[in-house]
Specification:
15% of the residues lie in helices and 37% in strands. With 116 residues, the protein is mainly beta. The strands form three sheets. The chain has a three-stranded antiparallel sheet. Strands 4-8-9 form a three-stranded antiparallel sheet, with no helix packed on it. A three-stranded antiparallel sheet has the order 5-6-7.
């Protein structure tokens, strides 16, 4: 899936901007990332991760690199339990198929679109 070569927190756009080693630049809105938090508190202990919408006012108050494989985010609602691996961030990227911001769920790494 690739690795980030640059990560920036765009305060004005309330987004995480990642440039990947293949040259792709992804802009991930902070509320979108909060909605995709992969932690057990948000998702339970199954093998499916669901998009759980939050308010557009959610912001990132801290970004912390976790080893060489992930990013931890402390959100303005106080939540900080999710660890966003590089693979997970790339899967959520609007440039990854299906193109665009994703809603629905991921089961065993495969995206499942929400019902129409």
């Amino acid at each position: 899936m690739g690795r980030p070569v640059d990560i920036a927190h765009s305060l004005g756009n309330n987004a995480l901007v990642i440039t990947w080693d293949d040259g792709v630049r992804s802009e991930l809105p902070i509320p979108y990332l909060r909605a995709w938090c992969p932690c057990a508190g948000c998702q339970g202990h199954g093998n499916e991760i669901h998009h759980r919408p939050v308010g557009d006012d959610i912001r990132a108050e801290g970004l912390y690199e976790m080893g060489a494989y992930a990013l931890a985010i402390r959100f303005s609602d106080g939540h900080d339990a999710g660890i966003f691996s590089w693979t997970w961030l790339r899967q959520l990227s609007p440039q990854t198929e299906p193109v665009g911001l994703k809603r629905g769920s991921f089961r065993a790494g495969t995206f499942i679109a929400p019902p129409p």
